Amino acid sequence: MSHIDVDVIDFLLLTIYPAAGLLAVEAAYRAARFPLWVKLLAQAAVSTGFAVAYVTLITAHWLTSIVLLFLAAALLYQARRAKIDPAKSVY
Fold first, then answer.
1. Helical H segments across 1-91, by residue range
2. Where is the chain membrane-spanning (predicted)?
3. In this predicted model, what pLDDT tens digit does every residue of 55-65 receive, in sequence order?
C-alpha cells in the first residue's frame, strides 16, 4: 500500500482492532447479563469511537471511518428495536 504510508500488517491490525473491541463488549455484556439494547448501545459507542480515532489520528482512513459509522447507525437501530420489542430482535 504505497500511497497512504500504511503497511499491509498495519492495515490488517487497524481492521482487527474494532472487531476485537466489539467482541470484547459482547463477551463482557453477556457475562454480566445486561439487556440486549444496552449491549448494542455499547457496541455502537465502540464503533463510533474507533471511527473518530481513525479520522483524527490516522492518515487516509476516512473510508474505514465511514463504514464504522454506518455500523454504529445499524447498531443504534437494532438497540432501539430491541428496547421497544425484544421479541422482534434478530439476536
1. 8-32, 36-57, 62-84
2. 12-29
3. 887 765 778 88
